[in-house]
Structure formats: structure tokens, C-alpha cells
Hints:
The chain is mainly alpha-helical. The protein has eleven helices and three strands, in the order H-H-E-E-E-H-H-H-H-H-H-H-H-H. A three-stranded antiparallel β-sheet has the order 1-2-3, with helices on one face. Strand 1 and strand 2 form a beta hairpin. The protein is globular. It starts with a helix and ends in a 10-residue tail after the last helix.
Amino acid sequence: QLSWAGIGIVAMIIISNINYNFWKKIATPFFGIAILLLIAVLVPAISLHALGARRWISFGSINFQPSEVVKLALALYLAKVAEVKDKRPIAFFLPLALVCGLIMLQPDLGTTLVVGFIGIVQIYVAGVPIAYFLGSLVAGIVGVAILIITSPYRRDRLMTFLQVGADPLGKEYHIRQILLAIGSGGLFGLGIGQSKQKYLFLPEASTDSIFAAIAEELGFIGSFALILLFVFFIYKAFKIVKNAPDQFSKILSLGITAWIGGQIVLNISAMTALTPLTGIPLPFFSYGGTSLSMILASCGILLNISRYQKTEVKNLK
Length: 317
């Protein structure tokens, strides 16, 4: 993980010195490559099947997750489309539907929700007619409902969320273990490395449930400090969006902010039983090289856009 963090930090530093307009030039081929990678995941000969899904391409000992790449690729592509005059709504909705469809074939509803959120936010700000926007939003909600109803696994997760206490040792086991970890931390936590729940009890303790392990070890104070850091990050990112120099940089920075902020909210909400459990990693903290390196690289784009931000000229008269 430190190796991937090192790669991501180097990428962030390099990308922060590349003018953001460069990404406009390569947005279309980059999006095309990301789509091909999503298709390649579905090929058994080159993909890795784990936890009931095909989400990784395996290169020897290295596992690569294309759905993390497509988050940035989609944000870039939709930002480029937003700059085109007399743009048709289909130019936004078709690529978004294509990406969501390919990710659901893996299947991965959590990532589909994040990608859908990125697209919907960018489409709304891009100025697509409200009738098309609302229609797509309704279609998306209906689509998610159908995906949940038709999948016993997803349906069980939803019913577990709605019927608290119905099956504590069965379907509710994981969320109860997560809440036990968070509650066990108390005010100041058990100490770094002292979590008990992360050994065999927490599901995916180093990835999806890492916030629960942090809460157990650092307590309410540590968890609250972490949330404050995330709030500060999102606040600074929105300032970059607000002061972006042009339409492309505005829509792109908003897409990246929606991506990282959306994952933060979804992950912590699931860990605190505010939403059903979803397989969403916590940005910057969850184990996963592709996710960490892509998020850091995207932060490099945000940093570069911030160098060209508009500044308000005050009247000194």
C-alpha cells in the first residue's frame, strides 16, 4: 500500500504541474481506453474472480481495478462534452449509461452509484434541460430499485437495513459487528493497533470497514477529527470549483469533488447504519492500490486548476 501511495504522490506532483487543458485533449481516447478496460474485466482469461464478482485485471501479483480509472475518465469526458455549444442531452446520458451498465455486469452496485452520482452532478451543472435531467434521475432510481429487487443478495441487505434486530446472528451479523467496533472505541479509543473487531469479526476490515477499525482504535475524538479533515478537504475542493477559470475546469473539478466526496459520505453512512451496506472504499484510507493512486492523481488535477482560479477584484475606492 505504501508503494501505491508513493506512486500516487509522485503522480499527483507531476500532474499538478501539467496544465489542465492537456486533459481536455486526451479526454476522448482516455475514456475509450477506460471502456475497453471495463470490457476486458468481463473476460475470464485475464480477469480475477473474487467475492462473487469480476472487478480486477490480474498482471501476475498485481491486481488492477478498471472501475477506479473510469471514474476519472468519465469526469474528464463529460467535462469536455459540457464545453460543446448546442450539446445534445444524449451526449451526456449515453456514456454515463454505458459505464454504469458495464460496471453492473461485474457486478458492483456501490461503484455504479458513485459513477452515477459523478455523472448526474456534472450533467446538472452543465445546464442540461431540467426535463431531461429529472427524467434521467427517475430512470436511475427505478433502475437501482430493479437491481435491488431482482438480486437476493442486495434485497437481503436492504431488508436488513429496514428490519433492525430481525436476524442479529445471520443477515445482520456484519453491520452489528461494525457498530460494536465503533461503540467499543468510546471517547478516546482502545489505542492504535488495539482493535479486537478487525480480527475475524469486521467484514473487509482493511477496505470497506476501515472506518469502524479507526473508530475502535481512536474513539469518538479520532473519528470526529478524521471527519473534520474530510469536511475541510471537500470545502477546499468546492472553492476550486467555484473559482475555476472556465467551463471545462469547473465541470471537471466538480466531477472529481463529487467522486471523492460521494465515496466519503457513502462509506461513513454505511458504517454508521445510516444507509445499507455497500462495497465502497473510504478515500485515502482503505486498502487498494488502484483507488488510492487514482484519487491522488485526480487531486493533482485539482491542484493545477487551483493555480488558475479566478480571484475577486475588490474595489478599493
